Input
Amino acid sequence: MNEMIKKLVDAYGEKLIDNRRYLHAHPELSFKETQTAAWIRQHLQAAGIPLLTGIHGNSTVGYLKGSTDGPAIGFRADIDALGLTEENDLPYKSQHDGVMHACGHDAHTAVLLAMAEILAQHKELIHGTIYFIFQQAEEFLPGGAKGLVEDGLMDSLDYIFGWHVSAMDTVGTADISSGVRTAAVGTYDLKITGKGGHGGSPHQCNNPIIPAAELVSAINLIPALKCDPLANCTVSVSNLICGVAGVDNVLPETVVMGGNIRSLNTDVRDFAMAEIKRLAESISAAHQCQCDVHLVYGYPALDVDAACAAIMEKAARETGLTVEKKNPSLGAEDFAYYSQKKPAGFVHLGLADPTGVHAPTPHHNPSFYIDDAKGLPLALQFILTTYLLAVKELNTKQ
Ligand SMILES: [Zn+2]
Ligand SMILES: [Zn+2]
Output
């Protein structure tokens, strides 16, 4: 199987890299990927791949049916870029000022399109139905995945797979594990309103800094005192704004503060957020202040199915990748919404330059760099192998 897939990837040729570089040069922000979506739809239609109707926004889902029965399997690529200015000096550097593919979603898109175009030419490899999911807005809440779930996409699927580049790990490595891989996240913003006044008459005021100060401690104690010690949770106070620097005889009227919550358990995240609201309101009330709390529930935790992970691990080994088992990350990934609905497989593939000429760069960095020429053919080989193993080993569950 390995040789056959390698031949398909070789035959697809330079188009894989050319497409990734075209997308890299033409990045678009989350929920604004109209040109990218048009480019994807045009390529899918040219390849004779029908588009699923009822999909909203800039997301696009193409599908192909095989002549034999088999599971309905989706493969997802996110298509959005980030709001930063590229600092790389590359012939294909971003042509859009202030927008850059600094997370590798251009690579995801190019690989998924290649997979779709190859399978459109080799329908004998398809069993059941395969869905090519080009998803808008992974980087920006509420996330494009949520919309696709609301569009009913997951009702059509038995399984879903996805992958993410890792610019910090060398080409040839794959981080694959089952279980929770990324965190459930949330943010809070609150405003405590007291009564401002003269520093000489505190008894005539309700200084909101007093409950705010208590609240900072109370929020930070939530993981230690309120969460199961075996669970994992981190809460932060990230901003706290009150009073005017240098104006020392005025007690302020309001305090605003905010921060974020992360846990590998979505229920724990939900609990910690509710607890922040309860503490903020009750501590403020104890000091005769009013508190308005705004909670934003971000992506849930991404839970990778054991059977899907096993298939991806086998595919990685068949592709010649080195499988690593890293700790889960407290980063977030909206692919998690899919994993709440159907068995899901998700991995990170290393795409850092193995020669070290380009040092590994963090994601969301203006110098973000991946070795597409070496890494993308391997990624394409890996994802095609994943599909062929999945149709062999996974049953139709619907
Ligand atoms: Zn990102
Ligand atoms: Zn990303």
Summary: The longest helix spans residues 372-393.
